[in-house]
TrEMBL record:
Residues 170-185 have a biased composition (Low complexity). Residues 8-129 form the Response regulatory domain. InterPro entries: Bact_response_regulator, CheY-like_superfamily, Hemerythrin-like_sf, Sig_transdc_resp-reg_receiver. Residues 186-195 have a biased composition (Pro residues). Residues 164-220 are annotated as: Disordered. This is Response regulator. Belongs to the hemerythrin family. Keywords: Iron, Metal-binding, Phosphoprotein. The lineage of its organism: Bacteria, Pseudomonadati, Pseudomonadota, Gammaproteobacteria, Oceanospirillales. The keyword Iron applies. The modification 4-aspartylphosphate is found at D59. Signal peptide: none annotated.
């Protein structure tokens, strides 16, 4: 089942006008079987009743039963007539990274950020359906908190949509645009509360060079290579190293393509980066829990920042403002460099300490 026309999709949002908006987009893409629910609890009932849903598109902030609780119930096998590996896409605008990383820990198939349009939704659904999830034991998912946090910006946006969004019926040839989001400045998302570090904080990493793309790539690859220290035989670190090199290579390709490549080609590269990043972050989350790493929340929050920056680049890409596209690209590159040089290095030092390596 590879085409959206063949899918039975359940849309879950506590605002009926948003459900109807998503329905309009899906209809323009040819989807015939679209169902809706106004809460996670209602979605669980719908899934159990029908037994034929192929994909769930869910918001996070709902009651009774938020989107994380819905995803957890599916992954734990607590929903009748529903496979644990059911494809679930989470709608998030990344204003609060903790929710994003909890969804990553619960093995969602991907994210959609607001505002939506038909082209992006189609690409996300296609990528999600082709993603293979290696399910963890149910108890692993039960151990993940489903408490959500919503920033004031998200609450304001939801209120605005409830009063002003007006889904319009467009012809199948025209993509449907999502309600305009409240303009947000390009600021860093809120910093999560500090957790006690296992090792002393390293010095701030040097500034990533901006002028020469090859120098930038070399600095990134050197930072990634430092995460494979001698003396540690850990298959995850080798997987992480190889995946990082692939991500960084794709990131370099994106930079080379910004000048003259069509947005669709660049978007495809960014999709690969996001998919590889999400897979890596999920595996690292499980690895850190297994090894009892105390600063897991702050580490995963930075993963959320990287996913946010990836989505921001996609959004700017379709805005067609070259200065903003380049700024978003550099922000993503910097986020990766800082994370590899500091947070990832701290985790490697923690593993060395556990193994008794000085």
């Amino acid at each position: 089942m590879e085409h959206i026309r063949e899918l039975a999709i359940l849309v879950v949002d506590d605002q009926p006008i948003i459900n109807e908006f998503y329905r309009k987009i899906l209809e323009t893409l040819g989807c015939k079987r679209i169902y809706s629910a106004l809460s996670g609890q209602e979605a669980i009932e719908r899934l159990a009743e029908r037994g034929d849903i192929n994909l769930v598109l869910t918001d996070i902030d709902m009651q009774p039963g938020n989107g994380l609780e819905l995803l957890q119930a599916i992954r734990c096998g607590d929903v009748d007539n529903t496979p644990r590996d059911l494809c679930v896409l989470v709608v998030s605008d990344y204003n609060y990274r903790h929710n994003v990383m909890k969804a990553v820990g619960l093995d969602c198939h991907g994210f959609l950020s607001k505002p939506l349009n038909a082209d992006v939704l189609s690409a996300k659904v296609h990528a999600a359906l082709h993603r293979q999830i290696d399910l963890a034991p149910s108890d692993t998912y039960r151990g993940i908190s489903t408490e959500i946090k919503v920033s004031p910006a998200v609450a304001s946006y939801g209120s605005l949509v409830a009063h002003k969004a007006r889904p319009t019926g467009s012809s199948p040839a025209e993509p449907v645009s999502a309600p305009a989001a409240v303009p947000q400045p390009d600021l860093e998302p809120p910093t999560p509360p500090a957790e006690p570090a296992v090792e002393p904080q390293p010095e701030a990493p040097p500034t990533l060079p901006q002028s020469d793309p090859q120098q930038v790539q070399k600095a990134l690859e050197q930072a990634a290579s430092s995460l494979l220290p001698p003396g540690i035989q850990d298959s995850f670190l080798h997987y992480k190293h190889d995946t990082l090199r692939e991500i960084l290579h794709l990131l370099y390709q994106v930079g080379e393509s910004l000048a003259d490549s069509p947005p669709e080609e660049i978007h495809a590269l960014i999709e690969q980066i996001e998919q590889l990043s999400t897979d890596l972050f999920q595996q690292e989350y499980l690895h850190q829990r297994e090894h009892g790493y105390q600063p897991v929340s702050s580490h995963q929050a930075e993963h959320g920042l990287i996913l946010q920056r990836t989505q921001m680049l996609t959004g700017k890409l379709y805005g067609r403002r070259k200065d903003r596209i380049l700024k978003a690209y550099r922000q993503l590159r910097e986020a990766w460099y800082r994370h590899i040089s500091v947070k990832d290095q701290q985790y490697v030092e923690f593993l060395q300490h556990q193994a008794g390596i000085k």
